Amino acid sequence: MKLHHLLVFIAAFIVQLGTPIYPVQAATTTFTGTFTASTQQFIYQLTTTAGSTVVFTLTDFPECRRDTFIVLRNSAGTEIATNDDNPFITPCGRVDSYLSYLFPSGGDFTIVATTYESRSGLPLKSPDDIGPFSLTFNGTFTGARFVGSSSIATLRDQFNDGRLNNDIGAEADQTVAVYCVDGGVMAYAIYKSQGYFAFKLTKDQIAKVPTKPKQNTLIHQALGVRLYRLTSGELQVNRTMLDPTQGDYVFRWAGCEEDVRPGGGKQK
Q1: Is the CB of residue 101 less than 8 Å from the CB of residue 56?
Q2: Which of 57, 193, 203, 255 is the most exposed place for a label (fewest CB within 10 A)?
Q3: Cα→Cα distances 144→25, 43, 110, 205, Å
Q4: pTM for this structure?
């Protein structure tokens, strides 16, 4: 074997041995956020095509203090994949989350970024539970966007009735069911697993408050449910729990201009 051929063979062998754990993907999108006692899960929407592979990584590097948890749901809201501990050793060990998924069909999918404690229904109190994170999508997809965040991340029950905050558990009493309707917002106060109509605001009524006000602005309130427009441009609903130690239930989302709901695509 000629020396040139031998060197090519050795180089190819080294490349094979050195194949990276995270393969090169067609596109990369990274979202950032902060887990707090009142914001325990973040919801995103991914649009992709059949046969695509997307790798999701959720980490709080460089702090490496939070035990992250990632959930993937299909367009019907059914949980199709999860990951708690990364199968690979990373700079954070294995407490961050890694999920590689081959999509047999295309469409809109929901990704939930949360923590193991929130997934288990435990409150976020210690410095190890609260802090920043980054969520990265690596792969072939046509769209990725932030949808909303919630103060409750007990992902045990699904309502699948079109509500935006579809990931709150049925046991999470004194919360709110939030819907986008024709670009406006409709809300029901939840008490003892029953929904009580709070309000329905049109997009014109909401538009009376600037898209990005100088301070967080109350738009409307009824039955203890308060709708705000935030300085970030997002909408947020709050409802005070009967137990004052629990604080407010909080749900924040990008808005209803496109009537997008997690796990259900676009409303008709």
Answers
A1: yes
A2: 193
A3: 15, 11, 10, 29
A4: 0.55
Find out whether 167 and 157 touch, Cβ atoms under 8 Å.
no
Q: What is the largest CA-CA distance in the chain?
A: 83
